[in-house]
Design brief:
The protein is mainly alpha-helical. It has one domain: Arc Repressor Mutant, subunit A. It has 5 helices and 3 strands; from the N terminus they run H-H-E-H-H-E-E-H. Strands 1-3-2 form a 3-stranded antiparallel sheet. Helix 2 (18-30) crosses helix 4 (52-64) and helix 3 packs across helix 4 (52-64).
């Protein structure tokens, strides 16, 4: 790959607002080797200095344009936990070693 490599597509995607790109990098930084992570919206918003609603809009943008898949997680007693976010692009392109 030349240029920016792995991130070329997200940097060049004019459909995504800056908030969505920031949230994508946040999720990617916290994702495991399979591209999965589960921070709560409140945590994402606090860590990125965004409102909860802005973080929710960013996640919706990322899901709509195919950068992530959102799924629900539940405890054994059936109560809901934070969402499970799967980075779709992470499945198509392996993460560079050490990241």
């Amino acid at each position: 790959m030349s240029g920016m490599g792995y991130f070329d597509s997200i940097y060049a995607d004019d459909r995504l607002p800056h908030r969505a790109k920031a949230v994508y990098f946040y999720l990617r930084d916290r994702a495991d080797a399979e591209g999965k992570c589960w921070p709560g919206v409140k945590r994402i918003a606090a860590d990125l200095c965004l409102s909860r609603r802005t973080a929710q809009r960013a996640l919706a943008d990322l899901e709509r344009f195919g950068y992530i898949k959102c799924g629900e997680r539940y405890r054994e007693n059936g109560s809901r936990m934070s969402n499970l976010y799967t980075l779709v692009r992470a499945q198509k392109h392996a993460f560079p070693p050490g990241e």
